[in-house]
């Protein structure tokens, strides 16, 4: 870094011949932030501590008639989210995901956290003042915090044991926490290069996922595809009953996409959300326009097979907005009955109540029957690439 020093013509204090005021000129090149930089100061709504009585009451009195003034889907979605976020501001506290934010075990409650903070403050006061009163308070709070933690932990373990058949996900989360294993290791390798910085891991994963993506956009030079013009499916107007039925199927979790709307809120407020969604969904069908905000997703790398430290062994999973999932579920229910007759009864992939297990069961039975007849079975393994064309 270059630095130029010269005599300054301006001085804040009086100067003498031995201490003249100097002027330093530095040339600093600012580092360009990473394209996929993770904003750790991101603010989100903490629904774990929400005042749900106030929230649900506020949502019930919202007048959604303003949506009918919009003919643009994106503007209608903007008003929808603006209204929801205003309701959240009144009853849902914000969660600040800061870099040095301390995290506590799942079984810690508010009483334990407050007790630990008071204990820490008393210890600091004792170290500063050496007053035995603060030390005695510190010892009392230390004993109390240990007792609260022991009780809360026992209750947590009992709850997991009693609900393991209904909620195995909580059990395995507890096991992973005990093993202290992260879903993504601290060091990953890409092209024999070790990556340990969190931002570099995010950027390298994004570059790898982009490199393996194939753009299947059809052009005039694309191969001719057989299309039966009489097989086009027309989706008629969506009604509130369909939306409520799908909303009621939402999971009882905090899973949320980029919009921050958790899935359990859709289920609990199904009769509230059906009114604005029925207008937006039908506007999508009328204008053949999908909202821009529902095209954005959180991409999460999921380990598939092989060495857990190799980036190429991960696959991207997109966490979509829950409202877009509702729309897709309704469209699926509409078109599935029309295309079901074209699906082979021998297909097991992407078919309800079928999987690789049912496929292997049928395949094994077929081989066993052939061997019992002293026959021969020839198997051909193929990998198909599906191209889906949407006409709007």
From TrEMBL:
GO terms for molecular function: RNA-directed DNA polymerase activity. It comes from the Eukaryota. Keywords: Nucleotidyltransferase, RNA-directed DNA polymerase, Transferase. This is RNA-directed DNA polymerase from mobile element jockey-like Protein. PANTHER family: ENDO_EXONUCLEASE_PHOSPHATASE DOMAIN-CONTAINING PROTEIN, REVERSE TRANSCRIPTASE DOMAIN-CONTAINING PROTEIN. The gene is GLEAN_05144.
